[in-house]
User: Fold these one by one.
Assistant:
Number 1:
Amino acid sequence: NCERVIRINKISIILTITLVLSSFAGVITKIAFAQGPPPDSTEAQREGVRRVFQRFGLSWERGDGVGVDRDGRVTGIRGIHVSYDSTFRLVDWAYEFLEANADLFGIANPRQELRLLFDTGNVVRMQQVVNGVEVYLAEAQIEMSADRTYISGIDVRRDPEARAINTTPTIDHLQAAAI
């Protein structure tokens, strides 16, 4: 059991490093923090940044930011202020937020397409699934500030083409076991 946890932690660390390195290399996304969209950004990226800043009242001066992929789909947001009461649950807020902003993230039905992996109260991580099959490296993570006044990070990595993949098995479990 302990060996399995260590193996899972090593895999999580490797996946996190891969995502961070990919992001820095510009393979997955361009992040526009503090100074506006990068000069080499596409028009779709610039428009995506403008839409998010207008919709949520974000400000470069406060250090808010947004990340978009080359097609203008949002991959990350930093700086959304929230008000909550004692019944506030970040996981509920996350699903409702992604549903209300499906046009920005390209996730049509978050409650169906994103399976909850964990919820610490201040951090929620979800895995993209298609017909019950997990999509490799496709996750959403929402983090709340320690003082619970704003969303310190929304990071969405999804595969928009995954919905088109046929997940119906072509062999049964006995045939699979024989391979």
Note: The chain is about 35% helix and 25% strand.
Number 2:
Amino acid sequence: SNKIPIHTFTPLSTFNTFFSSYNYDLNFNDNFEITNLIWKKIKDKYDFNNTNKYGENIAHLILFNRLEFEKGNYELEKKILKKCNNWNIQNINGNTPLHLIVQLDFDQYHKFLVDRKVNLKIKNKDKKTPLDLASGKWNNFLRKLPKEKEEKDDIVLKEYKYQHGNIFQSRFLDMGVFA
């Protein structure tokens, strides 16, 4: 009756099922009964860094709803944001969950970032960093968080003897047939 077939969930279908129910409950059902039922089944098994085709993880989506529509279920948000480990995943607009959360109420939302590693230099499509979007308390708080090690932008290409498209090509080139 209320059984959810856990073995049939994939990251994509779980993500979409959970978020679809969250959106439905957000608009039509204040008690979030369906979403809470799904949450109980996935909370310990789901990888919260999984993204949809737009590069958004669950944190992006719930924070966007809260920010854009001023709606959400804070109890569910707390559970999800506590499980969010990567605050630096960029969506199709270049926003990270960090870009979104810093625009919300500091007193309610800063606790989810305590001791999380963040990259404050990531820019979105509007060339804004999380610090650019943050205000007073957020700015001070973000500067004290541990920083994620930055990736180098340099691309290093290494040449290998057999880097060709397939073995057939590499054999002829190695023999000097087409060289």
Note: The radius of gyration is 22 Å.
